[in-house]
Amino acid sequence: MSKQDSTLKVEARSPRGFADREAGEIAATNRMLDVIRSVYELYGFEALETPAFEYTDALGKFLPDQDRPNEGVFSLQDDDEQWLSLRYDLTAPLARYVAQNFDRIPKPYRSYRCGPVFRNEKPGPGRFRQFMQFDADTVGSASPAADAEICMMAADALEKLGVARGDYVIKINSRKVLDGVMEAIGVGGEENAGRRLVVLRAIDKLDRLGPDGVRQLLGEGRKDESGDFTKGAGLPLPAIDTILSFSLGGQYKDGKPQFDLFGLLGKSDVGAQGAEELLEIEDLARDAGYGPDRIRIDPSVVRGLEYYTGPVFEADLTFETRDEKGHPVRFGSVGGGGRYDGLVGRFRPENTPATGFSIGVSRLFAALKLVGSPIVTAQPHVGPVVVLALDKDRLADYQRMVGQLRVAGVAAELYLGAAGMKAQMKYADRRRAPLAIIQGSDEKAKGEVQIKDLVAGAKAAAGIATNEEWKAARPAQFSAPESELVEEVRKALAAQREQG
Questions:
Q1: What EC number(s) does this enzyme carry (predicted)?
Q2: 43 marked ligand binding residue
Q3: 400 carries a ligand binding annotation
Q4: Any known ligand binding at 119?
């Protein structure tokens, strides 16, 4: 290797479509997840964790493109030359788990899962290749009550997270109803399955692209802002008009629907069956006290994945926000799901009914920040108490202080760098430390420590104009006997909590 080559450095850069998350965001996200988890467990759902990788054939035709394992998902071959894929969602792994443990688990089986999922797709603003989902599913029940319960649970979770009633709605539709519309425009039957999926995914983009964008995707195709072209479904104009008129339905006035669900379906038997199921779900929700302001039928709802077989759900946030140009826009969907009665049956002789709901964690987190939910905004991340190391030959003394604090349940760390006091204090600020513990040779001789309240100090410093005032006030710093270190630190931390 030449001398020039040995000096080359690798550029530090994040992979496109992947993001780093820092301590404050992680802590706030965990608080949000704890709230969701508490609601799911209140409904009797239990935790389950599945691997990030699945055998690619376990995902099967539900991949975006079944003929190219790396199209839409990230795939690799293991040492047995078996194709493995990073999970595309949390539902297909659940189906595999249930089938694998079918005779052992209770049925209906109620579980929730939380974790990252991966999409090998073009990243863009707000679109990542890795993101987190939080799912809850009931496997083994064909009852519409299971679908209604999922919708009610989603509504409860949003409200407990701080989304006000009136700022969200759980919208429900049915894949059977959509199939009825597909029959009416001539794209029913197994031979049109691929084309039908293109139509459904186009409708699913109605909120984001608007009617004109969806019209293009239902026709010959659409070119986005970057110049990339997406091939359309190639429907004739009358079929496009039928799809759009159906999808733009769903208006309510004074809590009553302003559309005729059965009238929209014509003579489709499967569509009528889906409509009956939707009305039963709606009745169950109403009986439980969930009005149309919280849960309601909406023909515009489509879930893009092919495995849905019945009711589908969307958690839609109705409040307005601003786009990058300052224009008002509705926040839109933060989660969705539906019934998938054929997914477990891929692994077993018979089908197993199932229904579930998935929350997009990052998107919901952004929404909660917009509405000012205290769960993600009111508790800034606080670091550990930092013990400064001013005398390098007394590290054992400083480590003993840190140990005493940790034994008492106080998060603490010893400064391990080589800088002086000023740099150590700057380090404590960057660590968001609530307190700094200072003991130089003078304090050691007196058997004392200096405890500096960095939170109060920052507030006091804002009102100090000169260096002389700073030296005279020495804001938020006090002496304490070394033997009372733990007690005094606890008092100072308690005072910070009381002051907010």
A1: 6.1.1.21
A2: no
A3: no
A4: yes
